[in-house]
């Protein structure tokens, strides 16, 4: 075992794929003398807008910034209730709290771990202003059901599409159905700008978000002739994406389809090899879905598997030098949200102890995917 380990390279859970193209584009930006939000950010916005078929796009400093601007632009604030899953990253709940909103956590569906439309409908009250859905791991939520629900009750629909850049359900692109949608280009996402995000959606809302995201100044710096030639009409924030980040984003964007296809290949290899292991559920892809494959999630049922999720993670790490991750620690279990769940969240809480994210990213080789498969089989006591 020791000699075997000595010959193994540690395998990260995730790794960005960056090439000479990104480096050249950044150098070009540095040489251009224009570093902040400018021509490259604008090109990046156009590329996203055209590809997703959305009406407008605003490149920002993170998905969290996009979520914050989405709430401000839609006029969501103190006294409002917003329905959102707890099985997600804390960003949406944090910005809700920042604008004085009480997040109402609703459970997810066991098939996809996305927010459940029926339970969402049951949680709507006179104070509900919006629904923030999240496309778990890259599998879109039921976009048609949530659009209908939002229209029926006059609610704002916001898609946190941080995981779902090239995903589709029932012919609809994730990020194109909400009044607003947000994407993340954080370092571990399907494409990255290091830190970065994109807010897309209805033009009137994006226009408001642009204003709020550049200090409330009524004209972007790079369109102004004189530096004092502006007015501040609202107390804004500074959330724009720099052209340095956009330079990376533009080149990453042109690789998105290839990256997603490679992720899908690795996911298919995992599902072929791991389906049928006792107590291990591979991710379900519902009919009519094109998965974005940000995550490859398995769910380990301790009653039927030889090991618990934590034991699998520990042994992959120590015996096979394979890193994994977990998505997510439910938001309502985080210290600052303690006691904030006012309804049972059984699927969320079960997922929290069973879910494990295996390495799945374009920089992985077939041999590395095979190494993960072999390691999992070994832990289940199977020989290949
Ligand atoms: C579902 C979800 N939303 C939002 C975010 C926040 O993204 P960012 O780091 O770009 O602000 C993340 C980050 O991992 C996420 O997983």
UniProtKB/TrEMBL annotation:
Q: Does the keyword Transferase apply?
A: yes
GO MF entry, a single one:
transaminase activity
Arranged from A to Z, the UniProt key words for this protein are: Aminotransferase, Pyridoxal phosphate, Transferase
Q: Which cofactor does it need?
A: pyridoxal 5'-phosphate
Q: Does the keyword Secreted apply?
A: no
Q: Which residues form a coiled coil?
A: none
The record's listing under Gene3D superfamilies reads: Aspartate Aminotransferase, domain 1 (3.90.1150.10), Type I PLP-dependent aspartate aminotransferase-like (Major domain) (3.40.640.10)
Q: Give the UniProt family note.
A: Belongs to the DegT/DnrJ/EryC1 family.
Q: What is this protein called?
A: DegT/DnrJ/EryC1/StrS family aminotransferase
Task: Recall the taxonomic lineage recorded for the source organism.
Answer: Bacteria, Bacillati, Actinomycetota, Actinomycetes, Streptosporangiales
């Amino acid at each position: 075992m020791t000699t075997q380990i000595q010959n193994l390279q540690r395998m990260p859970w995730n790794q960005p794929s960056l090439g000479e193209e990104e480096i050249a584009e950044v150098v070009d930006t540095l040489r251009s003398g224009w570093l902040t939000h400018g021509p490259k950010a604008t090109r990046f916005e156009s590329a996203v807008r055209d590809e997703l078929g959305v009406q407008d796009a605003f490149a920002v400093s993170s998905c969290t910034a996009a979520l914050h601007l989405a709430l401000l632009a839609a006029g969501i604030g103190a006294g409002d209730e917003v329905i959102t899953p707890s099985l997600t990253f804390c960003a949406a709940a944090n910005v809700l709290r920042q604008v004085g909103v009480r997040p109402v956590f609703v459970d997810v569906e066991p098939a996809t771990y996305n927010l459940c439309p029926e339970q969402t409908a049951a949680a709507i009250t006179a104070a509900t202003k919006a629904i923030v859905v999240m496309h778990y791991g890259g599998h879109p939520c039921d976009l048609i059901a949530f659009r209908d629900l939002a229209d029926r009750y006059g609610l704002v629909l916001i898609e946190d599409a941080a995981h779902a850049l090239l995903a589709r359900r029932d012919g609809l692109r994730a990020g194109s159905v909400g009044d607003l949608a947000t994407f993340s280009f954080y370092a571990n996402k399907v494409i990255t700008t290091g830190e970065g995000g994109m807010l897309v959606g209805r033009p009137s809302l994006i226009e408001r978000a642009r204003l709020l995201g550049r200090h409330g100044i009524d004209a972007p710096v790079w369109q102004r002739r004189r530096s004092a030639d502006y007015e501040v009409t609202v107390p804004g924030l500074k959330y724009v994406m720099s052209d340095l980040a956009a330079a990376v984003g533009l080149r990453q964007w042109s690789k998105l389809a290839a990256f997603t296809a490679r992720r899908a290949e690795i996911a298919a290899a995992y599902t072929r090899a791991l389906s049928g292991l006792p107590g291990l559920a591979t991710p379900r892809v519902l009919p009519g879905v094109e998965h974005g494959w940000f995550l490859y999630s398995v769910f380990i049922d301790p009653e039927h598997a030889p090991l618990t999720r934590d034991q699998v993670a520990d042994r992959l790490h120590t015996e096979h030098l394979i890193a994994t991750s977990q998505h997510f620690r439910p938001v309502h279990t985080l210290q600052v949200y303690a006691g904030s769940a006012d309804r049972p969240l059984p699927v969320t809480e079960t997922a929290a102890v069973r879910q494990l994210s295996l390495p799945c990213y374009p920089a992985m080789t077939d041999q590395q995917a095979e190494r993960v498969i072999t390691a999992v089989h070994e832990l289940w006591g199977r020989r290949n």
